[in-house]
Amino acid sequence: MENYMGLTEEQAKENIKKYGFNEIKEKSVPIFVLFLQKFWGPIPWLLEFTGILTFLLKKYPDTVAIFVLLIFNGLVSFWHELSAQNALELLKKHLSIKAKVLRDGVWKEIDAKYITIDDIVLLQSGFAVPADVEILEGAISVDQSSITGESLPKSLKPKDIAYMGSFVVKGKAIGRVINIGEHTFFGKSAKLVQEAKTKTQLEVVVFELVKYLFLFGVFLIIILLGLSILRGFYLGDILPILVVMLLPIIPVALPAVFTLSTALGAKELAKNGVLITKLSAIESAASMDILCTDKTGTITKNKITVDKILPLGNFQEKDVICYAALASDPKQKDPIEEAIFNYLKDDCYKIEKEDFEAFDPSKKYSTAKIKKDNEEIYIFKGSPKVAPI
Hints:
Transmembrane segments: 39-57, 64-82, 212-234, 241-264
Pfam family, one: Cation_ATPase_N
Keywords: ATP-binding, Membrane, Nucleotide-binding, Phosphoprotein, Translocase, Transmembrane, Transmembrane helix
Strand content: 15-25%
Largest sheet: 7 strands, antiparallel
CATH superfamily of the domain at 97-193: Calcium-transporting ATPase, cytoplasmic transduction domain A
InterPro entries: ATPase_P-typ_cation-transptr_N (IPR004014), ATPase_P-typ_cyto_dom_N (IPR023299), ATPase_P-typ_P_site (IPR018303), ATPase_P-typ_TM_dom_sf (IPR023298), ATPase_P-typ_transduc_dom_A_sf (IPR008250), ATPase_P-type_domA (IPR059000), P_typ_ATPase (IPR001757)
Membrane topology: Multi-pass membrane protein
Low-confidence stretches: none
Order of helices and strands: HHHHEEEEHEEEHHHHHHHEEE
């Protein structure tokens, strides 16, 4: 193993000034801006326009009712999103990632936020990869399901890249940080998601509904206006009446009904452990025809299971699974070995294990030496391509 020194604390501080913190920045919106946003958009504009119109026509009770609906609509949506944001922030604090880094020649455990370019980091079983890291020495297996959707671990050796967002399931390696934060592979993907802006289904439906109702109202007004002119009515007397006819066409209570129903839906989902950050997400989910999503860990459990065992020769199924368990380490978080232990029904631990060599990503196998019925048995578990037989 090479004698790495890593960065000094001063070099690390200079790099942080130059490259920034190792974090994916989210667009933070001040609370008062978040509140004002609830009164800016197609649906609020509809209510505001109607409220101003009724005020100009001196229909003050209608004006009050419309603005009460507008404020109610905004407050319910604002309060729900603020509560969801607070819950997410609390969750992030509890899930903060730690990393082992070499600073001034000494290994230290620090928050991954303070990892910087050219830091030397230690990657070992049970740790998350804190940034994009080039492997310098050692070998590890990483779970990249959050990035690629692949359940099986990927083996990495020197000169390979361990990407931020991966999880080390086996082995130990030393690596050099080459990308941090938004410049990592994971960070670039997250930025694309943040920049994606689409109209909600509610906005589309309400706009279509109001558009056709409004056009129908304008059509009636044009006919009535033409008839009034032909009959010699004074235009100043007929215009207020025509505007009043237009008001009932605008569905002012519709947004409030939608907001209340989605808020109740979000409350029910919260009881089942589903955190809704935006009420509009419920509307969009309820009206979709096709859902495109990653499979692994989202609609599946991201867990491998033993489905069928094919014993060869005189061996039976219970022999194969038992020997496989004896050549595995229950302390490791390897998905294949976890599947073996979950399938195991017999107690194989009564068999004496004299020697054990854990799975090595560079060798791609593990071995065990057991004693059964006064007979020494050597067990090999791994890739058939590298089987020592």
